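Fold this: Acetone carboxylase
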Amino acid sequence: MDEPEEPLCSARGCSSPALWKVLWNNPRIHTPERRKTWLACSEHRSSLASFLEARGFLREIEPFEDHDLN
């Protein structure tokens, strides 16, 4: 049986392991309590968050743990 793949950073072209959850929503189409998730490595955490923050979408950043996906 194959090992499950390690969750990776959501930044384009990045293959580093995910260490952070960047939680966001688009208030024009999502309810206030809804959270979408991008995963981030330490290197891309701030650039992904800045992209979302500039659009008013960033809600929170939390540490990511593999059990978060279950």
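The chain has a mean pLDDT of 91. The two ends are 19 Å apart (CA to CA).
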